[in-house]
Amino acid sequence: MNKLLRTLACAALLAASAAAQATHYEFSYTMASGTKITGDFDGTAHDNLISGLSDFSVFIDGSAFAGNGSMLIFPVVGYDPVVSFDGTATNFLLLGTTELLYIAPLNGGSTDSVGYRTPGVNTSEGDGDYSAARWHVTAVPEPATAAMMLGGLALVGAVARRRRRATPIVR
Fold it and tell me: What's this model's pTM, rounded to 2 decimal places?
């Protein structure tokens, strides 16, 4: 029985660690004018870059884009849309139903540009105005991870308690 439990535990650990899953992230950028662009998305981090972007939601000063969750995602420069943690290589164009948002590295990343368009508003900032220091991206912890950890600790505690209460078999 003990060997079966060990085998099942090892199989569960291998299955859980085999697939890389997208992580949920939140981002914010404050334009030089004070306009705040916030939102969230899913992606997979590789060093400074997050790729495999999906499920974007964007808010301009708290007002949601109409296409949140179903926006089309394109690169502005190159082949793959990416988000960078430090804001120096972020490269994406989001198209909603009536809005768009772009952040693009230009001139090899030395000049960046950010802009958005909503009905009645079209604004952007580029060379000299864009600041990577005003760009923030953070991973959002998953509640399931904490629940699995607590469940594992409870299971270890239950096994330890059972072993302590077990009466030794004398042969």
Answer: 0.70
* Residues across the chain: 171
- Where do the structural domains in the chain lie, given as residue ranges? 23-142
Question: What distances in angstroms separate CA 73 from CA 30, 45, 100, one per listed residue?
Answer: 21, 17, 10
- Reported as a single tens digit per residue, the pLDDT across 90-140 is 899 999 888 999 988 776 556 678 889 888 888 888 777 888 888 999 998
Residue written as token pair 């950010």: 114
Q: What is the number of alpha carbons within 13 Å of residue 139 lying toward its C-beta? A: 13
CA distance 159 to 89: 49
C-alpha dist (Å) from residue 165 to 4, 160, 161, 162? 22, 9, 6, 5
In terms of Cβ atoms closer than 10 Å to its own Cβ (0-12, 13-18, 19+), residue 125 is: middle
The span from the CA of 71 to the CA of 75, in Å, is 13
Q: Strand, helix or coil at 125?
A: strand
